[in-house]
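Continuing from the previous page...

OK, I double-checked the sequence for Equilibrative nucleoside transporter 3 against my notes and this is the correct one:
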Amino acid sequence: MDRVHVYTPGEEDGPLNAYEVPKPYPSPLYDNNERQQFLPPVKLDPGWEGTDRPPDELNFRTLERVEDLEKNKPRDRLNLVYIIMVIHGIGMLMPWNMFITAKSYFEDYKLNQGNETTEEVQEYRLNFMSYIGMAAQFPNAIMNLVNIFCQCGGKTGVRIITSIIIMVLIFIVTVILAMIDTSAWPVLFFWVTLGSSVILNSACGIYQNSMYGIAAILPMKYTNAIIFGNNVSGTFVACVNILSIALAPDIRTSAIYYFVTAIVVLLIAFDAYFILPITKFFRHFKLLTKLKHQQSRKLHEQTCCGPISSYWHVFKKIWVLALSVWFTFFVSLSLFPQIQSDIKRIDFPIADVYWTPIFCFLSFNLFAMLGNLLTEVMRFPGPRFVWIPVLLRGAFIPLYLMFNFRVEERVWPVLIPNDYAFIVMAALMAFTAGYFSSLCMMYAPKKVDVEDAGTAGMMMAFFLVIGILSGVNTSRFLCTLIYIEI
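Thanks. Re-ran it with the corrected sequence; updated structure tokens here:
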């Protein structure tokens, strides 16, 4: 017979003992059959998605028994936790997507005003995507790394909420910069923008890494929900950019609306986070992970910074997947946005002002999102062989340089002068990026023990960011190749 909590009359602080009837009441509850018939049933499930009890007192059947928790998994009602993860996926990439998609605002408006046309300003304009990429991803990578090895800065929730607040404040500064005239000081504007990006993406790094750690303790599809949200974010931002170009009277007004939208999205993510800890589904898996930590004596609370050996133990199990996700993002960010945004149309029937917003930013994020969605119905190849197609994606790099990229300055001939071929190639590159990045991120936490899933998730997030960082820096090198005579 299963043992249950027995609540006695007048008891206020929960069960006195999870397994035995308290001694002051030895017999009335069990010897008096007539009285026992009128006792109310013991409720083992909390109310709708929450309870006033702390997490370690949830009324799950046989709380301390891990096998029972694994057998009796609750349902994610209304897919609420999944939706919350998608919202955070949208929010965490909002800074990156906003800054790179506003290419015309920075390059053609803010850095192309007034009479100051020095070589310094022209350098900033020509390579703005590379500069903003480095300013964004260097601090992002550093904060991801710090968040893995040293989680001394308070609870995960505090880190996430603080990060979102910082991101909102920086976007407010960005909106103010869009409102004022900076034509007299374009160099100062450039460095203020880069400084804002550094702070913004430092906060984003902590936010991103913490959310992947949380998702790793949940079933596989919740990690994919974050990646899906990342690409929804890019698609959403690209659509907002196109609408702002079409509807706003000038580029300054469109930029203001554009950055205000980012603030609204981050505030929605801020509110969504407070719903997550009270859902029965999330509390179940959090408790399950905690109990497995106790079983293996690896409680995070026992030490501020975990021993290096434990991280090496996790890395040995996921290193192929970690390098695979790194290479996936390395190839993608070597080409997008720096090179892809500078591939110009030849004779495609669309206005130039819409070519880059649609066939660079919208195309990449839309098809990457579709690649994410495919993993919900098909997961091939498995974790053992996923590195093979990931490696083959490296062929996209030389192919991109054969298109109509910086045709005015290049020395290399344009070997593929066809807009339609570029559109298909760009869609294929983005689709495979979304598909294989999802597979790698989903497989990794399941390759380790449950108690190490959070660490594995954060490690994968770190390699993802390193892939972005190395890709962004490589893109500048690739741009110089077309100027070299063969």
